[in-house]
Design a protein that fits this description.
Blueprint: H1 2-9, E1 28-32, H2 37-48, E2 52-57, H3 60-71, E3 80-85, H4 94-104, E4 110-112, H5 132-156, E5 164-169, H6 173-176, H7 186-189, H8 195-217, E6 222-227, H9 242-248, H10 255-267, E7 279-281, E8 285-286, H11 292-297, H12 308-320
Parallel strand pairs: 1-2, 1-4, 2-3, 4-5, 5-6, 6-7
Antiparallel strand pairs: 7-8
Helix pairs in contact: 2-3, 2-10, 4-5, 5-8, 5-12, 8-12
Length: 324
């Protein structure tokens, strides 16, 4: 495990970048949190490769500013980048966002659930009163994905197997600091005051979401994976004390490197349907030795596991049911 942890801080060179990415002409992508950090870099790469990219976020002003930056980079083929209003911390905005997307598009090749918030001020909550990180990082993406499944399934019917994908976003803390079996289920209804623990729970939750979705839609040719984009210099650190940025600076990489991780997870031909629910490490490779307790959490008690992931999924379904 130590070797795997070390390699997440100092990963091998990426194998899929803008330099060798095939043309994405005719393909449609959604990237949540697409106007800053890794999301902006990913949108830029997909646009330059000729794809149609929906940059999803809450601020149209920031979205349009990002689109200007993206379009400043010439595309290899006719490409488009479009702003899609989406506030993941307000469940009431998610169905309208999906309806807007579906009114414009008949296909969706890859959904990148990239957006996240980390360590906001204690007591921060969503529009529906959920702990803000759980709402933004898990509940919103869960609902968004479930509502987009008809479009993803329709796309997969005529696409090569495993090329229609949903990519979730985890973190190195899943390996380093997550609780035994991933999370303590009682924390979901009664979030602790420790914001870092709440954040960790959401990054574990993203793996649980990826695994459950793989089971739900794998037979339809849709591949679901989670990934740790890497330790990066991004706005995700904005709520942390100033000294955290200083202390971690030597270990942080540029956001473009994180985009390579997501690019590999979303587009690499090295992964197949048999890899559904697996975990991708920086800058694009499957986790060779996931924690046994985490794997057990993603199995039901009937299958010899602990059933923790199933309880998490029940929580997500219960909290979003009224907005489906």
């Amino acid at each position: 495990m130590m070797g795997v942890t070390f390699s997440q801080f100092f990963p091998p060179q990426p194998t899929l970048t803008e330099a060798n990415l095939p043309s994405q002409k005719g393909r449609v992508f959604i990237v949540t949190g697409g106007y800053s950090g890794v999301g902006l870099e990913l949108c830029t790469i997909l646009y330059q490769a000729g794809g149609k990219v929906y940059l999803a976020g809450r601020s149209e002003e920031k979205g349009q500013a990002a689109i200007l930056k993206i379009k400043a980079n010439p595309a290899a083929a006719p490409a488009e980048v479009v702003f899609l209003h989406l506030a993941l911390d307000d469940l009431a905005t998610i169905k309208p966002a999906v309806e807007k997307f579906n009114s414009l598009e008949g296909r969706l090749d890859v959904l990148f659930n990239n957006a996240a918030v980390s360590n906001p001020p204690q007591g921060s909550v969503s529009s529906q009163g959920h702990e803000l990180q759980m709402a933004t990082n898990c509940l919103g993406p869960y609902l968004f994905t479930q509502l987009l499944l008809p479009t993803l399934r329709r796309t997969a019917q005529t696409a090569p197997a495993a090329t229609v994908r949903v990519i979730w976003t985890s973190s190195i803390i899943v390996d380093l600091t997550a609780s035994q079996h991933g999370l303590i289920v009682s924390d979901l209804e009664n979030p602790p005051s420790d914001q870092q623990l709440n954040y960790t729970n959401t990054k574990v939750g993203n793996w649980f979401l990826a695994s459950a979705l793989a089971t739900q839609v794998g037979s339809g040719g849709i591949l679901s994976l989670t990934q740790n984009p890497g330790n990066l210099k991004t706005p995700l650190l904005r709520h942390m004390p100033w000294w955290v940025g200083v202390a971690t600076a030597p270990l942080l990489h540029s956001p473009r490197m994180g985009a390579y991780t997501e690019l590999w997870a979303g587009l690499s031909s090295d992964v197949t349907m048999q890899d559904g629910g697996k975990y991708v490490l920086p800058w694009g490779r499957l986790h060779p030795s996931p924690r046994p307790d985490m794997l057990a959490a993603m199995k039901t008690k009937e299958d010899g596991g602990t059933g923790v992931a199933a309880q998490f999924m029940d929580f997500c379904e219960k909290q979003t049911l009224a907005f489906q």
